[in-house]
Write the structure tokens for this entry.
Amino acid sequence: MSGPRRETFPQSTFPDLRILPIDNLLPHEEHDDQRARPLIERLKQATHWLNPPIVAPIYNSGLYVILDGANRHFALKTLGYEHILVQAVDYESEAVVLDTWHHAVRALTIDRFLPALHAIEGVSVRETSLLNARAALAARDILSYVVTRDSRVFALTHNGDSTSRTAMLRRVVNAYRHQAKISRITHDEIAHVRDNYPDVIGLVVFPRYDPAEIMVAARDNDLLPPGITRHIIFGRALRLNYPLQELRYANVSLEEKNRQLKTWIQERLDAKRVRFYAEPTFVFDE
């Protein structure tokens, strides 16, 4: 009979944790004030850095695109930090999957929501079928589509001026995000959403993106609206609990901070404080 199975960490999945200059990180999406402002207040009182943002290098430029964690980056930068602890990934590897979040719009009336969409400059709104909307979005013939609580479907189309499609999407999201509650979902089935969110009045469905589009959005500062891209990371580092004071020190070099980080990681490993979960999980204390 064999002994207990030894826990190991595949070399390809162990997180690449590093401390970088905060100004070398470029967001690809706008930060979300509804999330960022409370985070800033929490970080003022916090003693530890929990979940590092996920970043990917931008082709030998010394810059990194933030794949996940724009609000955390914005919060630390607002608080005056020069350095930030991140998890770096290879954007072209199988360990990173780019998917899309859609918005379940809540705590708003349909009588305010639909007129707000119709009022967006440069956007046309027309009623259609769900199947036609799905096909048009897949072909990028429309910006997005909306499914209302009563299952009506509206396609949102760019009128074709010189404004970028990304800027038009920002206008779409800005039409409702400051006056509604938004929950992120992964499908367009309104009946299923109503089961979990009884106050939902509509879904806004967005296109799928390619990693190259994310890189260009960051490079050109043509940012996507918040809460649209969803990066699934195999081997994501969570609950790091790294002392925030180690990032604060202004008189310690970046090289020394990274040496201290490596020592800290090794100590955690030696103390068996690091565990790898291969299975999908639900976290209830975010």
